[in-house]
Amino acid sequence: MQHTHHSEIDPRILAQAAEWFALFRSGQVQPNETAQWQAWLVAHPDHQAAWARVEFHIDRFKSLPPKAALAALTAPDLQRRRAIKHLALLGGVGLANWQFSRAGYWQAWTADYHVAQGQIQTITLVDGSTVVLDSGSALNVAFSADLRRLQLVSGTIYIETAKDNSGWQRPFVVDTQEGRVRALGTRFSVSQQTDHSEITVFADSVEIQPAHPNSAKQRLHAGQNTRFAADRIEPIKPSKLDKPAWSQGVIVADDIPLSEFLLQLNRYRQGYVTCAPEIADMRIIGSFPLKHTDKILASLATNLPVKLSYPLPFWVKVLPR
Q1: 250-257 and 172-176 strand pairing
Q2: Where is the FecR protein domain positioned along the sequence (predicted)?
Q3: pLDDT band for position 12 (cuts 50, 70, 90)
């Protein structure tokens, strides 16, 4: 992840991070608020950069009033030590009157189908097609006389298309923020990321059409994966999976860094997991059941030279032992 320089983070985003910190410090967090925080965290790199600043100061924050957090978060680098030293005096910088937009969350929560953090849901559409929604995903369905259309609002879906049982032979498409994916009798997955869509085909093929009118279409075949933005399609990469691992209730770690593994794990927990930079590149191999994320973390502490720390409720940090 590319971190935004401190001075470039919008003060409103820093205030959001401080408000979330104050909420967690209060010890009165509701499950839906944890899900909203996780959605906020992954919605934009600047959100993650702002929360990284919270993490940097967490030990100092623990002994201070929650509303004093914003003073340290917004202080320029050269003034940081002074701001921390005088946080108690700056506690008047409150957040009670500050509200941030939840338009994106509202769009997800009002979708035809939305899945809570840590849950996976399988639905059967009226045409007989099957859609599996990954944790934190949201989907709208709009079938008409001439089109079978899904709109992926957020997250990831895995689709097994069926022949149109209406007798009209309507095309089956998935729309994302970056364009349209047309199924050509296939099994495939679509993921909506912050600035791109990702497609993996497991059987037959799909046709990708980026949203920009001058962008060319491209076919993607079984065993292939790619990403696309509104104006381009990235080079195709091979994929050796028969189905997405998450759709079968597991995370498969094929010699990946600990930091990447924890990013995947975060999507299936009510809370947040991170690791110290010095162990971020530690390699992880194995298959882990998603229903027992606490057991996954415990197994890391048992089998690797790491330990678990809990800086805040719902926040687990993996540290070197």
Answers
A1: unpaired
A2: 112-207
A3: confident
Q: Do 255 and 244 contact (CB within 8 A), yes or no?
A: no
> Side by side, which strands form the sheet with 315-320?
272-275, 315-320, 306-312
Query: What pLDDT score was predicted for residue 319?
Result: 94
How far is the CA of 295 from the CAs of 109, 164, 256, in angstroms?
A: 29, 43, 19
Residue-wise pLDDT tens digits, 236-291: 999 988 889 999 999 989 889 998 899 889 888 877 788 888 998 999 999 999 88
Residue range 26-47: mean pLDDT, rounded: 76
What CATH number is associated with residue 280?
3.55.50.30
Within this chain, do residues 54 and 127 fall inside the same structural domain, yes or no? no
* 192 shares a domain with 118: yes
Query: What does each C-alpha distance from 308 to 35, 113, 186, 302 come to in angstroms?
Result: 22, 35, 43, 10
Residue 164 class from Cβ within 10 Å (0-12 exposed, 13-18 middle, 19+ buried)? Answer: middle
Instruction: Look up the domain containing 71 and give its range.
Output: 6-100
Rg (CA), the chain: 22
Residue type, 187: R
Whether residue 154 is contained in a domain is answered as yes
* Token representation of residue 72: 């340290």
Q: What's this model's pTM, rounded to 2 decimal places?
A: 0.69
Identify the domain boundary among 238, 266, 301: 238
Average pLDDT over residues 144-168: 92
DSSP β-bridge partners for residue 205: 184, 221
Under a CB-based contact definition with an 8 Å cutoff, are residues 262 and 274 in contact? yes
- Domain count along the chain: 3
